[in-house]
């Protein structure tokens, strides 16, 4: 097998394209022939030693991938050889093969494209958990989605529209804003040229959004919180800007607002039944055509450093996919 091996925590510079022995599955594991993997923001952090999970060196990065079960370890009865699956975890996906615990492999229903499956669980799982579970989004409410043209942003936009919300998409640049319009945003703010607070005041008649979905952090957080509606909910999803904001918490008091943390990975670990039910609902929406991953660019597996560069530059639209020619 071939794999990208992270041998030091120096970012992309610490990753090397290696030929490795093809692993055999241990009891309770399956070996997956990987067809596609997606690049998520934690994949950038983990090779820099900045993510919550720190696998021992060396390791293969890549937390989300899809492929076909190629071999079964002893005791595995829930999957079969030839079964298409999606896998989520912390690492292992940027390779031609991976052995994983059978419980981490999600059997895909007929008609679920492998590239879509490789770009699905993290972004849609995070966004659904944020909007519906943590944010209690109701039909007719107004949602502000920051970073709306990125992986989790496009997923949040689609899910909010699927449940009947009014969506204001905020992104940087004309190309990203055009994508948000194509995905059905009711209004779009280009915060590279527009003042976020002024635009929100004009779009909501001064009332503000009921829900703020924020995977960006940084300098956008305070104007978004200042703009929130009475009894609004501010969803802290991540810090793609690289800066964790220090906010004046009297703003939450003045607006009767809730600051709500969103940690999807821990939700999956602590509440597996609720997580499985949520993924099932998302799969049904996918089959109905209500949601579909936005793939902004595809890269060959051996060109993975180019995908990392695209993500780090914040030029990515939707999800970045690496494709393996197994």
TrEMBL record:
Keywords: Oxidoreductase. This is Alcohol dehydrogenase, zinc-binding domain protein. GO terms for molecular function: quinone reductase (NADPH) activity; zinc ion binding. Its EC number is 1.6.5.5. PROSITE patterns: QOR_ZETA_CRYSTAL (PS01162). Residues 11-322 form the Enoyl reductase (ER) domain. InterPro entries: ADH-like_C (IPR013149), ADH-like_N (IPR013154), ER (IPR020843), GroES-like_sf (IPR011032), NAD(P)-bd_dom_sf (IPR036291), Quin_OxRdtase/zeta-crystal_CS (IPR002364), Zn-ADH-like_protein (IPR051397). The lineage of its organism: Bacteria, Pseudomonadati, Pseudomonadota, Betaproteobacteria, Burkholderiales.
